[in-house]
Design brief:
The chain folds into 2 domains: about 70 residues, no CATH class; about 70 residues, SH3 type barrels (Roll), CATH 2.30.30. By secondary structure, it is α+β, with helices and mostly antiparallel strands. It contains 4 helices and 9 strands, in the order ααααβββββββββ.
């Protein structure tokens, strides 16, 4: 019976007590942070609200607008480049190599896999040229994405003779 009485007399912590402990801990952390950072506690609150109100970890609305404007101009430039590249789309070309075949690759690189060998004097459709100029055996040129026999791949553009 003594145990039963002990449990009845034991008080449960009140919600108000827990809230006061949490508030005390938060205020202590706030004051310690102000001492550690060497600023007033009010400045910590101001900086906290400024960082909460900003987007992207401290960026201001003006800087975000400037970034969007810059990215819009990049998109505009790329769109213009894409539209000017349409002039090259589906141009016909003849394969001109000194060997019997030209290797079509899955990527614009000599180290990529060969997916098809195109016989010399074959007609291909040029889809587009790569934007960068590379050097192969000391000669500048560009990789070219082509379509041949229903297969798309990359060939060295210097081995094609455009016919249209």
């Amino acid at each position: 019976m003594a145990k039963l009485t002990y449990k009845k007399n034991r008080r449960k912590p009140k919600v108000r007590t827990l809230i006061s402990y949490v508030l005390f801990a938060l205020i202590s952390i706030w004051l310690l942070a102000s001492i550690y950072l060497g600023v007033s506690p009010i400045d910590i609150i101001k900086k906290g609200f400024v960082s909460i109100g900003s987007v992207g970890g401290g960026d201001t609305i003006e800087s975000l607008k400037a970034e969007i404007t810059e990215k819009d101009s990049i998109i505009q430039s790329l769109t213009e480049q894409k539209n000017s590249a349409k002039n090259y789309a589906y141009t016909k070309a003849i394969v001109k190599v000194s060997s019997n075949t030209l290797n079509m690759r899955d990527q614009a690189s000599l180290s990529s896999d060969i997916i098809l060998q195109i016989p010399t004097e074959s007609e291909v459709n040029i889809l587009f040229y790569d934007t960068e100029t590379y050097y192969l055996q000391g000669k500048p040129g560009k990789w070219c994405k082509i379509s041949y026999a229903g297969v798309e791949g990359w060939v060295w553009g210097n081995f094609l003779l455009e016919i249209e």
